[in-house]
Amino acid sequence: MENGCRSTWKVPMVSETKVTIKNLYKIFGKDPAGMISHVQNGTTKQELLEKYGSVLALNDVNIDIPARGIQVIMGLSGSGKSTLIRHVNRLIEPTSGEIIVGGQNVLGMSKIELREFRRHTASMVFQRFALLPHHTIVENVSYGLTIQNVPKQEAAERSQQWIDRVGLAGYEKHYPNQLSGGMQQRVGLARALATDAEILLMDEAFSALDPLIRTDMQDVLLSLQEELHKTILFITHDLDEALRIGENIAILRDGLVVQKGTPQEIVLNPADKYVTDFIKDINRGRVVLVSSIMDSKKLKNGPEIESNMILEDALQIISNAEVSEAIVTENGKNIGSVKLGRMITAIARPSEKTGQITNYR
Amino acid sequence: MREFKKYVDITFKDFSRTYGDGIETFFDPLLYFLVWFEKLLINAPWPLIILVIAIMAWIGSRNWFVIAGTVCSFIVIGYFGMWEDTMSTLAIISICTLLCISVGIPIGILMSRSDRLQSMVNPVLDVMQTIPSFVYLIPVVMLLGIGKVPGLIAVFIYALPPIVRLTNLGIRLVDKEVLEASESFGASYSQKLFGVQIPLALPNIFAGVNQTIMMALAMVVIASMIGVKGLGVPVLRAVSNQYLALGMLNGLAIVALAIIFDRISQSFGKRMQKHLESAHGV
User: Fold this and answer.
1) Whole-model pTM?
2) DSSP, res B242
3) Rounded CA gap, A359 and A242, in Å?
4) Which of B183, B191, B278 sits opposite A91 (nearest CB)?
5) Which of B184, B190, B196, B197 has the most A C-beta neighbours within 10 Å, making it the best mutation to test the interface with A?
6) How does pLDDT run across B190-228, given as a tens digit for each residue?
7) Backbone φ and ψ of A343, nearest 5°
8) Distance CA A329, CA A356 (A)
9) Residues paired with A104 in a beta bridge
10) What element of type H or E holds B42?
11) I need a surface site. Which of A52, A264, B13, B56 has the fewest CB within 10 A?
């Protein structure tokens, strides 16, 4: 069932926006609506808590989430990121603001419309898996379909393909508690995918997993995404994870979006000290692209490197070739070159010579 | 103060005179059912009863030790001539438990939905559990006279609270995240209730059923004071005539019933949580 009426033709844009979050405020406490004017007049989270006993969870959040991409929302605990993701499918009601998904105003939906929206348009993966402990794996994966009253046989068949896809074939009759954390989250992922929803909401989906398994799951997600092209909203507190899987990242602090941009933009041009502190320890080689540090000097011979390659991979090629310079290509065309020394500098500290990257807001 | 007491007494007497018959007719179907069930148990051949109970024990516990203990106790009960009384007690306990389940679980569910209702019902449950049973026997007997139905009501009042409380508690203890997940997939109210909340609360609800059975058994002797047949009657007689052996035997029969029901229902409750046993990492 197609629920979100696509309105691409109405909004001519380079990349279609799937989810728009506009001027979103969420305040917990007494009289939240009355608190908004205080917040708009500049009362900080701390002051609001001390003066009125209200908690400011989200403060004027504006995010456009492009269709068929992975948008990461990053922030430490208490930054409001889990609250934010729950607004998209209205598990939490906002104090004020707008959420538009595929042209539909989520906040204007009736109870029944909202139920249909949750069934067909947006599905969710939870931090601590939230599987039904009394159901087997196949029953868990087909849960979303069961809710839609899809016949049991059909639901099981449709689920099976997702169980196979996430690598859990053979575990269909097991119960969640018999599986490891990583496997349980595969079930959670399969359950969310089984409803064929276009939007995937992932609330710290991999945060409860061991580092190795986490990387594993990120690979699973990325390879699925290559095939499925879902619109994914991914919440995490782990910057490495954000940089690894995010095409766009929004950094949230005390309910406020402090920076939005691609991983490279954030690493190379942190908006403030908070973000700077964040990115201090990350592996730049995995984020910075060759294109941002190349120069236009044409080289005759040498190893070839794609301009959209990350430095880590490019360094591998250069060091294998045992040279200090390489040709940079774009779509097979020679567009310039890059020096080994420059690459090492870029990995060591943020480069100041990246003119083509604009500072984001 | 004396005027007040007099007023209450007279009003209630008038009330029971006016409506007593009506209320009695209201409970007639229950009485017929109770009588029918009791006769069924008493008239059925004893090997059949033991077989049925052994099967129940098997379904509940899957444990040969429990089954053997159950069969032995019933044979001993029969050997000492307490079969008929035991069957009467069994009848009233079963029906009372069924009543408590069908009334208590819905109340518990409603309570879990609303904090206000919970704060209103809880004191009532406290009163039901702590008020001396003789006190509410008075109005019940005044209304309905002496017999099986008033006895059943007395047992019911005493045995109802645990199932209500534990249903309420069980549903409130259901993992919030699982419930949220169910909601995020667009589950309707009844899909959440019957698909998530009740199944996950079942172990607690079953603990409530177990407690209710135990409470009902504890009320057997008191209920016999207002004309309920069963193991309580000989105990009462033993107390008033100082028949030590008779009292002991019937008392022990009640204990045996209690232990059997407890073991069966507890292990049934445990088996329902089988999915919680973690085979991972073993």
Assistant:
1) 0.81
2) T
3) 19
4) B183
5) B184
6) 999 999 999 999 889 989 999 999 999 988 888 888 888
7) -65, -40
8) 17
9) A101
10) helix B2-43
11) B13
> Model ipTM?
0.80
* Cβ contacts of A315-321, under 8 Å, gap ≥ 24: A315/A285, A315/A340, A315/A343, A315/A344, A315/A347, A318/A343
**CB proximity list for B80: less than 8 A, separation 6 or greater:** B249, B253
pLDDT-based confidence at residue A273 (cuts at 50, 70, 90) = confident
Both tokens of B8, joined, read 């209450």
From B101's Cα to the closest Cα of chain A, the distance in A is: 22
> Number of H helices and number of E strands within chain B?
13, 0
For chain A, give the secondary structure using H, E and C: CCCCCCCCCCCCCCCCEEEEEEEEEEEECCCHHHHHHHHHCCCCHHHHHHHHCCEEEEEEEEEEEECCCEEEEECCCCCCHHHHHHHHCCCCCCCEEEEEECCEEHHHCCHHHHHHHHHHCEEEECCCCCCCCCCCHHHHHCHHHHHCCCCHHHHHHHHHHHHHHCCCCCCCCCCHHHCCHHHHHHHHHHHHHHCCCCEEEEECCCCCCCHHHHHHHHHHHHHHHHHHCCEEEEEECCHHHHHHHCCEEEEEECCEEEEEECHHHHHHCCCCHHHHHHHCCCCHHHCCEHHHCCECCCCCCCCEEECCCEHHHHHHHHHHHCCCEEEEEECCEEEEEEEHHHHHHHHHCCCCCCCCCCCCC
B184 CB burial (10 A radius; 0-12, 13-18, 19+): buried
Q: Average of pLDDT values for B101-128?
A: 94
The confidence score (pLDDT) of residue B275 equals 63
pLDDT, residue A15, reads: 67
Neighboring chain A residues of B178 at a CB cutoff of 8 Å? 130-133
Position A248 scores a pLDDT of 93
Which residues pair with residue A19 across a beta bridge?
A65, A101
Asked if A190 and A162 count as a contact pair (C-beta separation under 8 A), the reply is yes
Whether A72 and chain B come into contact, CB under 8 Å, resolves to: no
Contact call for residues B213 and B124 (beta carbons, < 8 A): no
A183 phi and psi, to 5 degrees? Answer: -70, -35
A152 close to B (CB below 8 A):
no
Does the beta-carbon distance from B186 to A175 stay under 8 Å?
no
B82 close to B247: Cβ distance less than 8 angstroms: no
Contact A143 B182 (CB under 8 A): yes
The residue behind tokens 């939230």 is A130
Instruction: Name the residue type at position A212.
Output: L
Res. A356: pLDDT tops 80:
no
Q: Which of B173, B185, B272, B274 to mutate to test the interface with A (most CBs of A within 10 A)?
A: B185
User: For B29-52, what is each residue's pLDDT tens digit?
Assistant: 888 998 999 999 999 899 999 999
Q: How far is CA A173 from CA A134, A135, A143, A202, B70, in A?
A: 12, 9, 14, 25, 35
If you search the block for the tokens 């009960």, which residue do you land on?
B77
Say how far residue B263 (Cα) sits from the centre of its chain: 15
- The yes-or-no verdict on residue A8 having pLDDT over 60 is no
Residue pairs between chains A and B whose CB atoms are closer than 8 Å:
78
Structure tokens at B200: 């996950």
Mean pLDDT of A218-225: 93
Rounded CA-CA distance A11/A231 in Å is 18
